[in-house]
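Lecture 7 notes. Example A: sequence first, then its structure tokens.
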Amino acid sequence: MTAKRVKNTVLYAALALLGVILLYPVFFGLLGSLSTPSEFYKAVVLPVPHSPFKQFADNYQLIFTDETLLRALAVTFGKMAWGLIISVPVSVLLGFVFAKMRFPLKRTFFLILMSSMMIPGPAMIIPNYIWMARFPLMGGNNIVGQGGTGFLNNPWMFVLTGWVGVYNIFLCRQCFATLGNEMNEAAEIDGAGFLRTVFTIYMPLVTPILAVMFLNSFVGSWNDYLGNLIYMPDAKQWWTVGNVFVDIMAMFSDASGLTQPNYPAAFGVAFVSMVPPIVAYACVQEQFTKGLAMGAVKG
């Protein structure tokens, strides 16, 4: 056996061991979600479910019959859909403007827009909170933003915020910059207006970028936890699934009550929360990777 073969064997063995270590919690949680509480507590290495199909129905039924979760799912998908309907056209339009149109101080405006990405998200929590709480003429506020709560605990916050995604604008601008001006000139000769040129000629050419926007929006809305606690503390009926999943898992894992914690049901909640982002990524994986590559090209 050559030295290269020995090296490859050791490398593959190390990678296989690392894979087992990384996947062990996943298999433990999956088998745990298909077990009864007594079977779960007897587990040494992995839970061994004796009737997985029955426990699948029992444990996961507890999740999908929870009205709070069903309402949170509706709110999450509604917020996600509205965000895509608004942010995608705005990002495409601004990306096209910065890539193809000429106007004074264009580079300065673009640099100012990009500079907002350099500010850490946690540093903007308090300014954003103050801005939402003191928004004029909302939530009982007067014209100077005093006397009420603004957009706090108000679902209109979902509608009137999130229109401009700087990262999405950057991706669109970089992609449009790589496309020639011939199509734009031909569209002008044929009498196509600005909006028609952007949305019927250029936008179909950047479908992978749209996939990146979709996946980022989906994962961001699905995993949002802090936003609900900050802006909707007293309006739990408008919480998205991130907070509701945590509350349900905490309820099933509570060891302070009179009954044993139902860890199998808690693992079931965890797996349900993992599935939609994985499915979304699987559906747009090819377009997503192409979109990142297109957006990375320097224009």
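Example B, a different protein, same format:
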Amino acid sequence: MSLARAIPGMHQVLRGEPPEGSVIVVLGPPGSIKTGLIYNLMANALNHKGAQGACAIHITLDESRGSILRNLTSLHIPVHPRIQVSDLASFVNFLEETHAEDLQGEEVLDIVAGKVSQHPLFPSADGAATERLCPRFIAIDSLNGLIALTQLDPSRLRRRLSRLLFTLRQQGMTSFLVLETTQGWANAPELHLADGVIELGFDKTPDDLHRRFIWVRKMRATPHSVEPFLFEVTDKGLSIVGVLIGEPQR
């Protein structure tokens, strides 16, 4: 399963494969296609040879499942049959609205841990039955939503999140954590937990056009470019189109 070749041109950005079990934060401002990038990477990686019997889990804490799928359609990213999109936000809201359970901060993390520890059921290749597949990727979308739901103080949240990520590493799952921020990568305290950091953003041209860029800020044990690259939405999903000369103008 290759992330470095999961979207056209990605091999220019990642020049090797992140080790299995890596924790990768994808951060950027609103509209920078963080969710779309992660889904596109996971979907195309699952299409590669050697990925039979593997699946991915995408847990959304900020949007409904339907909203995620509509957004993917607008980006020309096909819905993958072996990616389970779990709308945890609606589940938590249901519990709160019906007072079925008074959720505490650590219970929210336990729900997330429970979701990722199960092997999801998917239709078999012939559609005649269902089968449990082994998750190789998980996306938690987003850290902002997780922090808001838990309402834990920062130090306690980091300890619990560290335990969750340790579990994911032990299971060999590569994890993507979405972080929405307008402050850039250097001001995000969650990044010390990550093996990799991918920044997405907008480059403003002199004639006031905004171009999207992708920038690998760090990726442990993986060769990668230290330059930002431009990417765009095509009729086949996302594509890297070339290096961005100089620092992005924000």
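Note on Example B: The mean pLDDT is 85. DSSP finds seven helices and eleven strands in the chain.
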